[in-house]
Specification:
22 helices; mainly alpha
Length: about 575
Amino acid sequence: MASLYGSPNGQALPEPQVPKAPQACMSCRKQKRKCSKTLPACALCDRMNRHCDYSDASPPPTSEDFNALQMKVMELESRLNGGGGGMMSQPSPYATPSSTALGGPDGSLLLCSLMARLSNMAGAYTKKSIGLLLTNSRIEVPKPSVEIPVDVLELLGDSGSIHGMTTEYFSTIHKWMPIVSQKRLQLNLRNPLFEGGPDLALLFLCMKLITSRPQDGVECSHNPIYTAAKRFVALTEASGSVSILILQANLLVTWYEYSQAIYPAAWMSAGWCLRYANMLGINGHDEASKLLGRPGTWVEQEERQRTWWGVLLADRITSLGSQGYIMNSQEPKKDDILPANDSAWDNGEMESAMERKVSNPIEDHIAPFPRLCQASVLLGKVLAHNFGFKLPLDQDQQLQKPRFIEAAMLYEEISALARVLHDETTQAADYLSIAAPLALTYSAMCALCDSYSCPKGCTAKTPEAAAMQAQAVSGLKTVSGFIVEFSNRINANTPNAHDLDRVSPIIMDALYSGASNYAWLVRESGDESSQQALDAIRYSLRRLGTRWRNAAEYLRLLDAREFTYAVGSVTGS
């Protein structure tokens, strides 16, 4: 029988001749790598699953190429014009044939040749720079070489540790902040040819950071994972690295800083994310730079959109505690697209992802993350209202009228969304999935009513102002009652300590706002039911403080406020 691996006469068959290209491919020439020149694709392009271009066109010059040629021209001009003086006229002790030719009799011809080449390169380089402004093509963004720090590699551990960490991330943090594509990441990790870079290592590190629990006696700002992540972010920024993974990683750092009460770092990191997202061009506006170019798949497009909404959420929510907000010129508009259905995106099911806009009726049933984005839109309107109107309540009635009309409309919008969310919680299989958007709605209502309920240093002097003040006080009492019910349901749905990992730190502001209102009611009336409600919310904050330190910080602020009330009542102030 003839061998399957040899010729019938027993001799080895000759090696098949693989056709090769006459020159290296475009990608290898750009990266100055050795090219196998195999057809139809070289070994590296085949392994990276990318298009292999063997055309004769030269790659566009880089800024380094342009500067190097410009230096050669300057050196030749100096030698031709300088005569016998100066450093540039002296023969080099390390002369080469090319360097000695610069001073030869044909130096002027060489200068003309170099000048022509420089002119052509300048034109090509200018065209490349202009190309960065184009929005309809995938722009080649330079990828600086960044070494993954040794301490990062040690913190990440082996592949088994990374797999366990990502599993925990997607089962906890991803439930309330789904900005990283689980499907895309899993497909890449399963691909043996996939090569993860420093930006992926940074994302993994920040996933590990946000899933880490506080340690007793150790400040969260001293967490070794946190300090390593901040150094790594600074390293990628200094190198000029451009990647959506870097943005997602620093967004997780921002949420860690917010949830673990690391201020003012959280507020500054949120601003960094906003600028970086604008640079990448994922905000969906025409004036954006679009450095990432067009997305290749629907999942990629949806991931960019979700990341942008995550940036907006972080920017607003980190501003709540500071009682200040820098207005963003890219506030969501009516025609902006909300994130798709959460499960459809996780599974990559584009056909089941119905498009929803900001202007869609709130009664339309949508997933938790789009609901959270709807609540953030209303919160943005409240912040714009509070910081846009600067007139005190005792001003002229005609000047106040537009303000009161807008406040009343916002009150109705927020109340309507709160009712829809409250109805959805009665039918939801997982209450914690709806907790963040519901709590953010409560925060928006408290922020709106608080600005009218107790004006500083004045009493409402017009009938309209008095009516607005009464409505605000009534609204605070009503929403505070819902917050007590909310805190009780959070406790009921987190019987074990590990259940707290799935609770979003976004809810803490609503709990604190409700507790502050009850502390004020206890001080004013000494009502026993208000005291019981206050104690119930304090209990929730105490439990949640073991997982998210911002809950413990809110509890400390609440204790300080109660102490101030107590001192004030004793002194009669």
